[in-house]
Design goal:
Blueprint: H1 4-24, E1 37-42, E2 50-58, E3 65-69, E4 87-94, E5 97-99, E6 101-103, E7 110-114, E8 121-129, E9 147-150, E10 168-174, E11 180-183, E12 187-191, E13 194-197, E14 200-201, H2 202-206, E15 210-213, E16 215-220, E17 229-235, H3 245-262, E18 270-276, E19 283-286, E20 290-295, H4 303-308, H5 312-318, E21 326-328, H6 345-348, H7 350-362, H8 368-383, H9 393-398, H10 400-403, H11 411-414, H12 421-437, H13 444-453, E22 462-464, H14 466-476, H15 481-489, H16 499-503, E23 506-511, H17 516-525, E24 527-530, E25 536-539, E26 544-547, H18 552-555, E27 563-567, E28 570-571, H19 574-587, E29 591-597, E30 600-606, E31 614-619, H20 626-630
Parallel strand pairs: 1-10, 17-18, 18-20, 21-22
Antiparallel strand pairs: 1-2, 2-8, 3-7, 4-5, 4-8, 6-7, 9-15, 10-13, 10-14, 11-15, 12-13, 16-17, 19-20, 23-31, 24-25, 25-26, 27-28, 27-29, 29-30
Helix pairs in contact: 5-7, 7-12, 8-12, 13-14
The structure holds zinc ion (ZN).
């Protein structure tokens, strides 16, 4: 399935890294060739939620002991999310003899194995049990009766001490006989239900998951020169794979728009590995040459669902440049055990959030109104986040590994991974400032070409620091970018940075009509959105997910976890609440609400009379429509 072009290059890369290693030690005797780890994964029982793996690990024992580690800090997840609790069935052998082992008492991801003298290869057998609830990240639900996403980091063990670039590994994978697969990992050969991959570095293996399934479809997208792109999809049904041709055309335009934006690519081929299932975790995880994208089963055949998920693939693909190729120093760790530092995630994720949404509009996956509605939602949510009074945006990045798993309750006071949506606002503002400073001659597109473009290359990492970002911005348009960024990263509010919307010729306003985006979110997430009126984020049964501190609901002593049982004497549902808000505005009456707090029920009065409120962007006709300029296609006619 892989092009022979890519196989040659990856092999050459491996050889060149070994050659470089030899050169450094040329004064000494030639070192023995580095033996690869061999791993065989049996995914034929993925529908039963268990994968089996066997590894042969070349080892150098020390005093009768070998330590092997299980990947802990997972690239792109920015945290210690390796699913160590799901690693089961662990057994070690050498020379046919079973060995004893113990876990490190401090580092739960390390195992100490007692080995006999002279052992050079450790055999490990392990099982990965897969969770069923459709939540979490890549270690969340990954398999259904019809498909599986194999993430190699969940199945490997290695002896620590080397850069993962310098650990060669040869993988094989067994999948059910009637399944197909897609991956960016170069294939050596296949047959009898087993795929044998080329030897690559551990870095490349972990960066190259495999999507396999019974219902599988591949659409070639635009090729640019020798670089092909593919949309590889596995689904729980054939029906979900009947993607309208116009949607495929929009993904082809996405590929063209990324080429026009960055001006160079840093991969040999690119695969969107798209899982369409209601039974897997829904998220995206970026890789250099692919992305692991998981959405609801009917996303590409139901227009409402498609619009809600439209920015996922543009976001993950943007990461190939912003996150994978250009990576903050603190996230470019030498192996999977060293902790990552997230202080520049407002670039890694924040700029990706901005570019991903701009590319969604430029490629036609969103129309202009959908882009504006999403921007309004982002701006309003952040402008109504009282947690910014104690927690600056910088701390949401610094504490990312904690905030990713924090609950919805008290999110507006705790703050969440706000470096994504607030990064959108900050980079939008930077884009408008560049355009203003240069009279429209330059834009953030020029920054992307400078910072992420250059020449086409194979996958590689070019690290950066805060000052490198400032310097690149200054090369595009001289400005006090250090102060611009620090002012927005270290501030305590009160409001969100809305300068990009204002400069862009638009205003954030609220009215009683929900946008299509807001309605779609309520429908698909089974929620009732009263955040901007009462200060309440509710599920459709009336359970309070969050209360905005100092909002009317907060002042009425309503708290997260409580349940709205009745409104104005009638059992709660979303329509009853919205009708009561309308009546309160028309008649000036308070809302009388019955609230359950665990087993106890109380009546509360909410003093609020302004009706429903939902955010929108409206034109400020005194200024040019720079937002409209920003989302115009760059690659038109391609
Ligand atoms: Zn991302």
């Amino acid at each position: 399935m892989m092009s022979s072009f890519q196989r040659t290059v990856v092999c050459a890369l491996l050889l060149s890294s070994i050659a470089a290693h030899s050169q450094r030690k040329s004064a000494q005797p030639a070192p023995a060739p580095v033996q690869p780890i061999r791993i065989t994964v049996d995914a034929t029982h993925a529908p039963e939620k268990i994968l089996h793996a066997q590894l042969q690990i070349p080892v150098t024992p020390s005093q009768g002991r070998v330590t092997v580690t299980y990947p802990k800090w997972i690239p792109g997840e920015h945290g210690p999310t390796g699913p160590i609790g799901d690693l089961t069935g662990l057994q070690f052998f050498a020379n046919g003899q079973r060995l004893t082992w113990s876990r490190d008492l401090v580092e739960m991801f390390a195992f100490h194995v007692n080995v006999p003298a002279g052992v050079s290869t450790l055999e490990a057998r392990l099982d990965l049990v897969l969770p069923a609830p459709p939540e979490g990240f890549s270690s969340g639900a990954s398999a259904t009766a019809q498909l599986d996403m194999v993430s190699w980091n969940q199945l490997v063990l290695y002896q620590p001490g080397k850069h993962s670039d310098d650990i060669p590994i040869t993988a094989s994978l067994k999948i059910p006989a009637d399944w197909h697969y897609g991956t960016a990992l170069p294939v050596e050969n296949e047959g009898n239900g087993q795929i044998n991959f080329r030897t690559v570095s551990l870095t490349t293996l972990v960066d190259s998951p495999v999507l396999a399934g019974r219902h599988f479809r591949r659409f070639p997208l635009s090729a640019e020169g020798p670089i092909p792109h593919f949309l590889d999809m596995a689904s729980d049904s054939e029906a979900a794979l009947q993607v309208p041709p116009e949607v495929i055309n929009e993904y082809k335009r996405l590929v063209a728009e990324t080429g026009a934006l960055f001006g160079a690519r840093h991969y040999r081929e690119y695969h969107f590995l798209l899982t369409l299932s209601d039974r897997v975790a829904h998220f995206g995880l970026e890789h250099h040459q692919s992305s692991d994208d998981r959405v609801s089963e009917r996303t590409l055949i139901d227009e409402d669902m498609r619009v809600l998920a439209a920015s996922l693939l543009p976001h993950e693909m943007t990461h190939s440049w912003n996150g994978k190729y250009r990576r903050p120093e603190g996230l470019a760790t030498p192996d999977y055990q060293e902790p990552m530092k997230g202080d520049l995630l407002w670039v890694y994720e924040g700029l990706t959030q901005y570019l991903g949404e701009v590319l969604t509009a430029r490629s036609g996956l969103w129309n202009k109104q959908q882009f504006l509605d999403e921007a309004a939602e982002t701006a309003a949510a952040l402008d109504n986040t009282p947690g910014r009074s104690w927690r600056p945006l910088q701390d949401t990045a610094d504490a990312a590994q904690v905030l990713y798993s924090s609950p919805a309750e008290f999110q507006s006071w705790r703050r969440s991974v706000d470096f994504y949506p607030e990064g959108f606002l900050i980079w939008l503002e930077a884009d408008t400032v560049i355009r203003q400073q240069t009279n429209g001659q330059k834009s953030l597109n020029d920054f992307c070409r400078l910072f992420h473009g250059g020449q086409n290359t194979e996958p590689k990492v070019v690290k950066y620091k805060f000052d490198d970002v400032v310097s690149a911005l200054n090369q595009v348009a001289p400005h006090d970018w250090h102060k611009f960024l620090r002012d927005r990263l270290d501030t305590y509010g009160p409001g969100a940075p809305l300068g990009g919307i204002v400069n862009g010729g638009w205003k954030l306003v609220y009215d009683e009509n929900a946008s299509e985006i807001t309605k779609g979110q309520e429908k698909s997430r089974h929620t009732v959105d009263a955040r901007f009126s009462l200060g309440l984020a509710l599920d459709e049964k009336g359970v309070v997910r969050d209360v905005i501190v100092n909002s009317p609901a907060w002042k009425a002593n309503i708290a997260p976890g409580m349940e709205l049982v009745a409104v104005n004497g009638r059992r709660f549902n979303g329509d009853v609440l919205k009708d009561a808000l309308k009546a309160g505005k028309a008649n000036g009456t308070d809302l009388e609400v019955l609230v359950a707090n665990g087993d106890f029920i109380k009546a509360v009065t909410i003093n609020y009379h302004d009706g429903e409120k939902y955010p929108h962007l409206v034109r400020d006709e005194s200024k040019p429509d720079i937002l409209g300029e920003i989302i115009k296609p760059l690659a038109e006619g391609k």
